[in-house]
Amino acid sequence: MLNFKRSEKLSKDAKQIFIPVINGTVKPGEFSKSLHLDLQEQLAFFAPSDKPIKAGEIYEFPAKVENYSCERIALVSLGNVSDQELRTAGAAIGRKLRGKNEKVFLALTLKSHQYKSLLISANLGNFQWSLKRDQKSANSQVSVPADDGVIKSAQVISDAVNRARELIHTPSNKKNPEWIAKQAKRLANGAKVEVLSGRALKEFGGLLAVGGSSPKPGPRFIKMTYSPRKSGVPHVVLVGKGITYDTGGISLKRPYEIMAPMKSDMAGVATCLAVISALRDLKIEVKVTALLMCAENSISATAQRPSDVIKHYGGKTVEVINTDAEGRLVLADGLAYAVKNLKPDYLIDIATLTGSATLGLGKQFAAMYSRDLKLINQLKEAGEKSGDRVWHMPLVDDYVAALDSDIADLNHTADKYNFNGGSITAALFLEQFVDKATWAHLDIAGVGRAEADAGENPKGGTGWGVRLLLQWIGSLK
Ligand code: BES
Ligand code: MN
Ligand code: ZN
Q1: What is the C-alpha to C-alpha distance for residues 418 and 415, in angstroms, rounded to an integer?
Q2: How many Å apart are CA 38 and CA 240, to the nearest integer?
Q3: Looking at ligand 1, which atom is closest to the CA of residue 253?
Q4: Which has the least CB within 10 A, 44, 67, 214, 454?
């Protein structure tokens, strides 16, 4: 990981110095003057023709400088310094420092929000995770002339994203629901943690039906409560999907190749947990409760069957059609619990819910559903600012009929009449459990996991949503 440190002057002990190239021009600033180097000459090697240098491109060369420990200088292109370009450049810097234990200096003069984007992405690009026997820890110290507030928040936010990633990367033979409860306690950072299991879950019909497939240790309902000192503040309730492995259950996933990524099916919970872990350090004055709905969706003699009817928290009955649509079953209990017990001002659920969410949108935007225009705009804006972008999707009223069941209040796969739009009908199912709450649903099936190691993301869990939610919660008054 990267540890950020404030330094107004070019640090003497830095082994490497990063110098920005903006819009094709090297911007040595006051820092580089003391280096007495011909950076223009180096730039000519970097960009031999007139072709523009894209943000994130880096040109490194050895440089010994008197009175400095500097051994290498890197010219790094920031493009035209848009936030997106700063993220790309930050990620590239972080990647350069992967596996290293080094002191470096970023000779950048930027505005606060620009530093923030770049630094967060640097720590994200630096992230690596493995269980290799000879894996060594790597911690580089990155000095930068930004102010303390920016440095602190970039550190806290990016550490939180990486924390979520660690949870998602952990293999499912280790991270059962009980393990997640332990992590919630370990990472609570002052938040109150309550865990329900066994008989205490008797009203949580969805969680029991899914988690019953894997009775040792069985499902967990984990409630994390962050209460700031100030009272009379808004109350945000987050509900996360925490399927520690999704085989599909009796409706087994096929082809089997699509099953391996399903260790990431608790990404929603990882995001909620990581958000809670950062609130105190960011001094956020909003009450936040996270409900982590944790279960394994396995195939076994105690697994639920297609055609079972279950009763959710609050009493609604649901006909189970396809046991692979398990996420909405555990979320329904969480949403109903929140509405009945927590009086949320905002109710947000986050889940790797449907493969369909990625069909139109790809893996860059999360599918966001809500009927509250103000909340929609707030989340969109927080998405653009933080880099975790959302796309507003429609809750199509005509499709509600898909939820009809002949024998229960709802049919859970919402596949009647073949409307398609699986991400939309899943959202409509969830909406049946939110009553009058101001609610948004984030389907992160696409963004929650990356299949390639590139840019900010490692292959595997991305920690998507931590930046978005921290940005949004921080903006509430
Ligand atoms: N966890 C999956 C959704 C998913 C798919 C997440 C791909 C990430 C990548 C979810 O539980 C699921 O299986 N959904 C089904 C729903 C269907 C059976 C109605 C799906 O999307 O196919
Ligand atoms: Mn599934
Ligand atoms: Zn799932």
Answers
A1: 6
A2: 53
A3: 13
A4: 67
Decide: 422 in ligand 1 pocket, CB within 6 A.
yes
Mean pLDDT of the chain: 96
User: DSSP state, 455?
Assistant: T
CA atoms of 319 and 269, how far apart (whole Å): 25
From the list 137, 318, 340, 349, the residue with the least C-alpha distance to 239 is 349
> 313-361 pLDDT, tens per residue?
999 999 999 999 999 999 999 999 999 999 999 999 999 999 999 999 9
C-beta separation of 343 from 437 below 8 A:
no
Q: How far apart are CA 107 and CA 74, in angstroms?
A: 10
328 is known as an active-site residue: yes
Query: Beta strand 449-450 with 460-461: parallel, antiparallel or unpaired?
Result: antiparallel
Type of residue at 128: Q
Complete DSSP assignment for 202-214: TT-HHHHHHHTTS
Exposed/middle/buried for 316, CB within 10 Å: 0-12, 13-18, 19+? Answer: middle
List residues bridging with 74 in a β-sheet: 18, 60
Going from the Cα of 205 to the center of ligand 1, the distance in angstroms, rounded, reads 20
The structure tokens 């229960």 sit at 408
390 SS3 class: strand
State the residue for tokens 């009493």: 315
Q: How does strand 287-297 pair with strand 235-246?
A: parallel
Give the mean model confidence (pLDDT) for residues 205-215. 98
Rounded distance from Cα 216 to ligand 1 centre (Å)? 24
pLDDT over 80 (residue 402): yes
DSSP letter for 20, please.
E
Max CA pair span of the chain: 82
Indicate the DSSP class of residue 66: T
pLDDT at 416: 84
Assigned token pair, 304: 């639920």
In degrees, to the nearest 5, what angle opens at C-alpha 258 toward C-alphas 252 and 261?
Answer: 110
Q: Which among 6, 72, 253, 311 is annotated as catalytic?
A: 253
pLDDT tens across 64-83, in order?
888 899 999 999 999 999 99
